[in-house]
């Protein structure tokens, strides 16, 4: 989608405020060159102080962006665009972050087995004079997993650094019967909306 | 999903009857080791002689599997399992294969723009004493693409070797607003159903 503005984006210093190699791979797959800069924001917002999951993930994404932008400006490396994202797995009113132990991973995956849940990814795109925020949500339906399959999956090590205890782009993808929404929201960065925002931000420069 | 039978699968000579690096990457992502062997089957079946898209892609997948299996047996390299797949993009009653020219790619993508279409992937899994066939279908919804975006996408070269003229796992993913079904069906190999079949084939060997 971005090809008509790619020559403009290539001249920008675009920073992805994330330490996630999966997010970096996604933006590289669509031809964007970005600098990866992990946020030092503590991610300690209280979800109960927000009206919705969307507001919570957007605010976390915003705080990541602001922390990274401020730090880079202090270092004299002023970014043109900073992109931040935060992903959360929810089941009903519950939020699943990254499991803190194998026991917790087992509990999470047992809960997700044989049913649907919703993944929220909040995104913030900040240019020098504009901030755009949005949230995408995608429904994910897991097939029924037996205890051996869950224990075997945890033994691969994949669940431990991922929201909800699974990675859809890895071994975890084999448990997913279907999705409804943008698949890339589940990986961690909704590409369609992100590219739409970037296209709208820069299309007026095409003819300059 | 396959972890409880992975030690069994690792001792098998598994062949993927495909030349697609995308399919190979998918099976490797879930931890399966396979040998890639492109089928020499001509893919010349007449779609109009089949009752449904499903029967057509399954039969094409079957012919790929049989050709590869026969050839390997003649070479004295007898496979334990051969997996074949065929993917097709459909819009209403029309089938979109790989575009044969940039002009045709432009026509296809213009037709897909701003609407939903359905991707069928037929899969055949053949062991020494069993053949399992199935088809998965996934709905894909493209956002509206303008002419410059389509031309820019074609200029990346990505559309030319892909059914429907796009690759969802590459630059094409940025055009996709949402999917309904197994995302991996669109990449070319429905992982959930494939893994379910392999698990059912080998789970009785776990305790042997």
Q: Describe it for me?
A:
- The structure is a homodimer of 208-residue chains.
- Chain A is an alpha/beta fold and 208 residues long.
- Chain A has helices at residues 6-9, 21-29, 53-74, 102-112, 147-155, 183-187, 191-202; strands spanning 14-16, 35-36, 81-91, 94-96, 116-126, 131-142, 176-181.
- In chain A, strands 1, 2, 3, 4, 5, 6 and 7 form a seven-stranded mixed sheet that branches.
- In chain A, a hairpin with a 2-residue loop joins β3 and β4 (94-96).
- In chain A, α4 (102-112) crosses α5.
- The first copy, chain A, is globular and about 60 Å long.
- The relative contact order of chain A is 0.17.
- At the A-B interface, α5, β7 and α7 of A face α5, β7 and α7 of B.
- β7 of chain A pairs antiparallel with β7 (176-181) of chain B.
Strand content of chain A: 15-25%
Helix and strand pattern of chain A: HEHEHEEHEEHEHH
Radius of gyration of chain A: 18 Å
* Largest interface (C-beta under 8 Å): A-B, 40 and 41 residues
